[in-house]
Write a structure and sequence with these properties.
Porin, 16-stranded antiparallel barrel, Porin_gammaproteobac, mainly beta, 370 residues, 18 strands, globular
Length: 370
């Protein structure tokens, strides 16, 4: 059986859609910006689980207020609605992506915030998560420890190392336990207390490097029902990127333990939901032409191993593909894209049984953002 920039702070606070935010309030040193996007996208694939409409809409608010000359406060909320659900649906397509509040301590003291935010592992993963679709998905999953968006994140960030080292940025993060009954979480979305750190350095104006690690306690339910040996889920990542506004190149490498999901994440046929160890590699390249066209290519590979319930060690590809496509920006608000994902995992009924994708996917869509 096979298994299947000037700083990090700015990149996290100014994710896609915020660059074109509209100011809706500005009074007494308090501002409020509104931003959002609507994406119409369709998947074409032989795999029924990756076939059909994938459209969504997002709306966000971002506020800042000056408390005194050395202290300011900020907050952000972002909501998403899936557009492929029936109007009489159960509402599962609507959710809060981000929601946090924090304080900024002068120009060199850094920031501290708490709420639903990005985990520090995303500070590295964001380097290759730059395509309209695909990429950035070898080890990142929302509500999977500190790899992506998650709940209960307390984060301190500092640029230029308190003003002492230009271009050196770091983040410290703690995540509280999330496994309460009634919180709409299953074993895959649960986590114990965790901590992490990221570090990045701007080597030149166009070249930067980053590294991150995180460690989270596994919950009692995860250890009992998912056949996980050990007490913690750990992850380590490093990345390098080159960006001169026209040419963009980036590569990341990650090792994760009890953290990368196997296929659909269900413990099927004696295989646990998380790989005991995974190695993940992502490489991306794109070029922005002056007239709005951006061709792009990405390679993503995730390999893992796990101990089955019968004690047998199994290993293989969790994900492996090449994505090729292009994006055309009509202006800063509207763009169209088409990408084709060439799946490099051989068609296997064993892979399909545990939810590992083995078919190609074509994604086409348009994005309007403000």
């Amino acid at each position: 059986m096979k298994l299947r920039n000037s700083s990090i702070l700015i990149s996290v606070l100014a994710m896609a859609g915020t660059a074109n935010a509209a100011e809706v309030f500005n009074k007494d040193q308090t501002t409020l910006d509104l931003y959002g996007e609507v994406q119409g996208m369709h998947y074409q694939s032989k795999d029924e689980s990756n076939q059909g409409d994938r459209s969504h809409a997002r709306l966000g608010l971002r506020g800042n207020t000056q408390i005194n000359s050395e202290l300011s406060a900020y907050g952000r909320w972002e909501y998403e609605a899936k557009l492929n659900n029936a109007e009489a649906g159960d509402g599962n397509g609507q959710h809060t992506r981000l929601g946090y509040a924090g304080l900024k301590f002068g120009t060199e003291g850094g920031t501290f915030d708490y709420g639903r935010n990005y985990g520090v592992m995303h500070d590295v993963a964001a380097m290759t998560d730059v395509l309209p679709e695909f990429g950035g998905d070898s080890f990142e999953t929302p509500d999977s420890f500190m790899t992506h968006r998650g709940t209960g994140m307390a984060t301190y960030r500092n640029d230029n190392f308190f003003g002492l080292v230009e271009g050196l940025h770091f983040a410290l993060q703690f995540q509280g336990r999330n496994d309460k009954t009634g919180s709409n979480r299953n074993l895959l979305g649960a986590n114990g207390d965790g901590y992490g750190m990221s570090l990045s350095y701007d080597i030149t104006d166009t070249l930067s490097a980053a590294a991150a690690f995180s460690s989270s306690r596994l919950t009692a339910g995860q250890k009992q029902h998912l056949n996980i040996e050990g007490d913690r889920a750990n992850s380590y990542a490093a990345g390098l990127k080159y960006d001169d506004e026209a040419l963009y190149l980036a590569a990341i490498y990650n090792q994760s333990y009890h953290m990368t999901r196997i296929g659909n994440g269900a413990a099927i046929d004696g295989v646990p939901a998380f790989a005991s160890k995974s190695e993940n590699l992502e490489v991306v390249a794109k070029y922005n032409f002056d007239f709005g066209l951006t061709p792009m290519v990405a390679f993503v590979q995730s390999t893992g191993k796990a101990t089955a319930f019968d004690g047998q060690t199994v290993s293989g590809a969790l994900k492996k593909y090449v994505a090729v496509g292009t994006n055309y920006a009509f202006n800063k608000n509207i763009s169209a894209f088409a990408l084709y994902q060439f799946n490099l995992i051989k068609n296997s009924e064993a892979d399909k049984a545990i939810g590992i994708a083995t078919d190609d996917i074509m994604a086409v869509g348009m994005l309007y953002q403000f």
